[in-house]
């Protein structure tokens, strides 16, 4: 509140002259003290948060070094937190086993981790650290290559892991198309799994979930599946986001390659000449044996 506002308030309270001035000075001084105190508290809180994150990062790096040196992920969890840090919310191994890339599906594992984290009401800022304690092998190496900021952000860590284990839009598309019912799997469970693959496919494709967005996704898949393998590979490498971008890139490729059929590529004339010799010219013969070649 400004001095003018204090004066106006004091006058409404019936204060005048020296009494009003004294009251305004007291209120202004008190307001300034409160503002200074609030500012100091914010600075102290930011500094404490910075120190805590730095200490947690050091603890995480120490755990990663232990595992990379040959220790297990379980033994790494016994590393003592640096003095001054808050203790971990919970030991995740009491609720979640270590991720095994040869046995576990990463997508399902992360879903289970998130269910446990939400059920246990872990603070979101602790999720990345808790997840790191559940990783081993290649997954832990992926986590170890993250920047300090990314290693403390769950969504960044999750994205890096999904990309490494090919839980991408293309990977989920293949899972959705090729998935078959498992032994002892009910129809409802199978449908739920298909929904999961499809939703992940749409989510990772960053197309949105509107009718038009899903239609574009389906048409793009149909185009990629029904063109020549060379063209399909070229388009997938470009990572085009919309079906219009895919179609435009395909037309540019066809024009550059002088092709006129998306599915059947004709061999270039110079390539045929290289493989079969120039037209009208007899193949060379050996002077010794008389055979061609």
UniProtKB/TrEMBL annotation:
Domain SCAN box: 170-259
Pfam family, one: SCAN
Transmembrane segments: none
Protein species of origin: Rhipicephalus pulchellus (Yellow backed tick)
PANTHER family: RIBONUCLEASE H, ZINC KNUCKLE DOMAINCONTAINING PROTEIN-RELATED
Name used for this protein in its record: SCAN box domain-containing protein
InterPro entries: SCAN_dom, SCAN_sf
Chain positions covered by the region annotation Disordered: 27-48, 73-92
């Amino acid at each position: 509140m400004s001095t003018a506002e204090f004066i106006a308030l004091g006058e409404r309270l019936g204060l005048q002259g020296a009494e009003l001035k004294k009251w305004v000075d007291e209120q202004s001084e008190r307001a300034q003290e409160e503002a200074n105190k609030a500012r100091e508290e914010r600075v102290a809180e930011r500094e404490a948060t910075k120190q805590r994150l730095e200490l947690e990062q050091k603890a995480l790096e120490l755990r990663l070094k232990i595992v990379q040196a040959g220790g297990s992920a379980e033994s790494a969890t016994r590393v003592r937190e640096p003095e001054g840090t808050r203790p971990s919310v919970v030991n995740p191994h009491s609720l979640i086993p270590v991720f095994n890339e040869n046995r576990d599906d990463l997508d399902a594992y992360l879903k289970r981790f998130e269910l446990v984290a939400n059920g246990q009401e872990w603070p979101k800022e602790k999720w990345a650290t808790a997840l790191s304690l559940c990783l081993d092998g290649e997954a832990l190496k992926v986590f170890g290559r993250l920047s300090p900021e990314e290693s403390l952000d769950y969504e960044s860590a999750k994205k890096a892991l999904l990309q490494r284990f090919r839980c991408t839009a293309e990977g989920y598309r293949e899972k959705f198309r090729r998935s078959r019912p498992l032994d002892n799997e009910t129809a409802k469970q199978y449908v739920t799994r298909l929904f999961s693959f499809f939703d992940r496919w749409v989510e990772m494709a960053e197309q949105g979930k509107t009718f038009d967005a899903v239609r574009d996704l389906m048409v793009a898949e149909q185009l990629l599946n029904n063109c020549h393998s060379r063209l399909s590979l070229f388009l997938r490498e470009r990572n085009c986001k919309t079906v219009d971008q895919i179609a435009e890139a395909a037309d540019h490729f066809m024009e550059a390659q002088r092709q006129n059929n998306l599915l059947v590529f004709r061999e270039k004339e110079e390539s045929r000449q290289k493989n079969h010799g120039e037209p009208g010219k007899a193949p060379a013969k050996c002077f010794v044996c008389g055979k061609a070649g």
